[in-house]
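Lecture notes, continued. The same structure-token format from the folding unit now serves as the input rather than the output. Read the line below as a description of shape only.
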């Protein structure tokens, strides 16, 4: 048996063991209940049964009067509510009379190679060779409910996937008020919590804090994973660093409302839960129906945050992102948004395209404002008809002209929206999400389309499809610029809209990439409000933030790359002074920061000087030289910018590396954020190299991997703020 990649069940010990590369996950059956035993460093199969504390519970010895103590103490693998477990529950079910109560007992299990899909939802995938799965059925006979917990593991990765199917096998309607996807009971042991929090323009700032008694909870009620909180949470040892200490990361493969919570309980355990938020959620489950909860991923690292990040990056690159562009060099694009906003026409776009082409840029992306009579953000969403006043001859004329220049064309859509001032809204006012009898709140002067309805989805899909078929369009930026409020529908039950909305978005994106398999899709949501694993299932890259300032991006991209591979992070070189913060940053620094992402431009390139254009040509060359390494390599944070690093980060500089999987090559990016007087050149400790190999730097100096990692590397002395330097290392011996 391969002890780095196996799932077993011991009849004798009544234990399930999931063995991964460097970690083990163990579940046990105690009496009729399923309990969590362990997730941590490698241990033998079936170890740790005493963690179920069966001897502590007289109920286990046949004294029914003490069931309540048991219910509130046992480390349930999946916790149901209403029958004595007062800790955060995973499942809340009401019966036909409205009574809350569900008691889950072990019934059956299956272990198999490969991994099943989750109907209608994004999820990781694997083959019979690189994935193994376990399904455990828990039942409540009184309700006629079957809850199937699904687990998968992947060869070489320390990550467990979890999802849940709830099936009504009874004869009465049931009401689901909460169905989380993962529940994990861990010893508390002074652990801390790390989340990604922020706002528009400040997405995914890393936040680290101790866990006291009571509950820590983050989530989104906005119908999008959101700018403000992120469907990620890590429970970490208080001494965890970039390279050492225990880090357990939870990531949710979902793009709508979520909750992630950790509660330190009376017995100093930590119960962690993650799943669809119970806010505005009420699902009617009729006899014979099933509800599918999305997938949560739980990764394990005892080598700090760096190893957790690389585990998630590889999980997403190998088992989540499906796009044919995943392993391809992405075209260098120039987007006209910050160059023109709504104020453009054919000539202006072609002027940008010509100059961009002369600098080596490969694709022009036409952003918001090409349709209806949209010249500001107050109209025309839903009317996906080209504005011929701006673009005479329509999209085909534009595409032909751009193609003649030698570039590809990409285009912006905001498919889920409708402007009150639009032909679509005038024809179908009931197609907007709103509560009958109430005036819905406008946001950016727009409303959300009720894509829980099939006819609305069909309209949206046909509109996009018609546009894409009308011209040679190779890329779509799918934007979504407002949260859901006034959540009502003429066709869907109130408590189901939020989740059915996400199912609608997923169905639309699935149709899009199925009908246009060669399309490069980039998701976006008012910057990075829907940057999540759910979206990565459909698009290989997601716009990271509307804040394109390189220095701000150091923090935003560091938080984003805590879980997502650089190849997924939409990052552009933009104009200075920056439109969000007014900062002026060296053009080279802007390119080094954008290189830690998909790389592109977002500026009026026609206004650049000859020297700047020639520098952009050099940057384009730089991208071609390093993009394979950045896209496919392993990320190592050498010096971070966030409170992840408790001890002594002066935040005066930031450095990161991407190292080829075979360690033959590495790129070190160093940014001096803030110059400091009377300081020696900085010593940084590289990571991820082969200790026994020698590496040559671009300037010809040769160092051993061991020297660079253990003695350290002395960076060049740099003059000034916000200055960057790239160092490329190639194995020479
Ligand atoms: C928000 C996006 O993040 C921007 O890049 C841009 O596409 C605007 N929307 C357009 O309305």
């Amino acid at each position: 048996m391969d002890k780095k990649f196996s799932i077993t069940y011991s009849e004798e010990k009544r234990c399930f063991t999931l063995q991964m590369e460097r970690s083990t996950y163990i579940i046990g059956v105690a009496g009729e209940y399923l309990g969590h035993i362990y997730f941590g460093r490698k241990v033998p199969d079936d170890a740790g049964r005493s963690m179920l504390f069966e001897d502590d519970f007289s109920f286990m010895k046949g004294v029914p009067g003490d069931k309540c103590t048991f219910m509130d103490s046992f480390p349930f693998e999946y916790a149901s509510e209403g029958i004595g477990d007062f800790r955060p529950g995973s499942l809340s079910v009401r019966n036909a009379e409205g009574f809350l109560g569900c008691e889950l007992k072990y019934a059956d299990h299956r272990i198999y190679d490969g991994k099943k899909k989750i109907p209608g939802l994004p999820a990781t995938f694997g083959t019979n060779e690189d994935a193994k799965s376990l399904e455990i059925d828990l039942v409540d006979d009184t309700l006629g409910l079957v809850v199937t917990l699904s687990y998968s593991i992947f060869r070489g990765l320390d990550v467990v996937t979890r999802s849940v199917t709830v099936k009504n096998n009874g004869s009465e309607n049931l009401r689901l008020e909460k169905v989380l996807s993962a529940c994990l009971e861990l010893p508390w042991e002074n652990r801390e919590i790390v989340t990604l929090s922020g706002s528009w323009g400040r997405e995914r700032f890393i936040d680290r804090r101790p866990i006291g008694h009571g509950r820590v909870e983050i989530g989104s009620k906005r119908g999008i994973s959101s700018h403000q909180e992120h469907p990620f949470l890590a429970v970490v040892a208080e001494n965890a660093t970039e390279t050492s200490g225990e880090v357990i990361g939870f990531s949710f493969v979902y793009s709508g409302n979520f909750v992630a919570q950790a509660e330190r309980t009376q017995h100093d355990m930590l119960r962690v839960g993650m799943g669809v938020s119970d806010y505005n959620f009420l699902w009617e489950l009729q006899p014979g129906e099933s509800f599918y909860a999305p997938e949560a991923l739980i990764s394990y690292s005892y080598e700090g945050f760096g190893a957790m990040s690389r585990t998630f990056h590889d999980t997403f690159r190998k088992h989540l992102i499906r796009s044919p562009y995943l392993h391809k060099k992405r075209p260098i694009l120039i987007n006209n948004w910050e160059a023109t906003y709504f104020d453009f026409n054919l000539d202006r776009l072609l002027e940008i395209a010509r100059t961009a082409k002369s600098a080596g840029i490969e694709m022009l992306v036409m952003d918001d404002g090409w349709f209806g009579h949209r010249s500001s953000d107050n109209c025309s969403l839903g009317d996906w008809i080209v504005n011929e006043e701006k673009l005479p001859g329509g999209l085909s004329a534009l595409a032909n002209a751009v193609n003649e220049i030698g570039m590809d064309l990409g285009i912006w859509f905001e498919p889920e929206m409708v402007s009150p001032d639009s032909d679509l809204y005038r024809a179908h006012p009931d197609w907007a999400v709103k509560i009958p009898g109430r005036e819905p709140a406008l946001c950016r002067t727009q409303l959300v389309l009720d894509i829980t309805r099939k006819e609305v989805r069909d309209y949206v899909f046909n509109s996009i499809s018609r546009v894409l078929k009308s011209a040679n369009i190779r890329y779509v930026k799918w934007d979504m610029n407002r949260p859901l409020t006034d959540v009502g529908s003429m066709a869907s039950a109130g408590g189901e809209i939020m989740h059915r909305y996400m199912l609608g978005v997923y169905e639309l994106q699935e149709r899009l990439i199925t009908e246009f398999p060669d399309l490069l899709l980039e998701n976006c949501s008012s910057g990075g409000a829907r940057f999540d694993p759910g979206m990565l299932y459909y698009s290989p890259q997601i716009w990271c933030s509307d804040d394109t300032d390189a220095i701000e991006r150091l923090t935003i991209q560091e938080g984003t790359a805590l879980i997502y591979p650089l190849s997924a992070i939409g990052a552009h070189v933009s104009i200075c002074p920056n439109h969000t913060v007014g900062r002026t940053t060296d053009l080279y620094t802007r390119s080094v920061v954008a290189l830690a992402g998909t790389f592109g431009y977002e500026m009026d390139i026609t206004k650049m000087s000859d020297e700047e254009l020639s520098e952009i040509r050099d940057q384009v060359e730089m991208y071609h030289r390093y993009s394979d390494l950045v896209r496919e390599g392993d990320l190592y944070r050498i010096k971070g910018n966030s409170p992840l690093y408790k001890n002594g980060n002066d935040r005066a500089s930031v450095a990161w590396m991407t190292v080829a999987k075979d360690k033959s090559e590495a790129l070190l990016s160093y940014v001096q954020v803030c110059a400091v007087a009377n300081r020696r050149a900085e010593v940084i400790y590289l990571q991820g190299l082969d200790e026994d190999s020698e590496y040559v730097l671009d300037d010809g100096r040769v160092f051993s991997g061991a020297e660079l990692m253990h003695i350290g590397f002395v960076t060049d002395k740099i003059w000034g703020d916000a200055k960057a330097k790239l160092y490329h290392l190639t194995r020479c011996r």
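Point for the exam: The pocket of DGJ is lined by residues 337, 367-368, 412, 479, 481, 524, 526-527, 543, 546 (CB under 6 Å).
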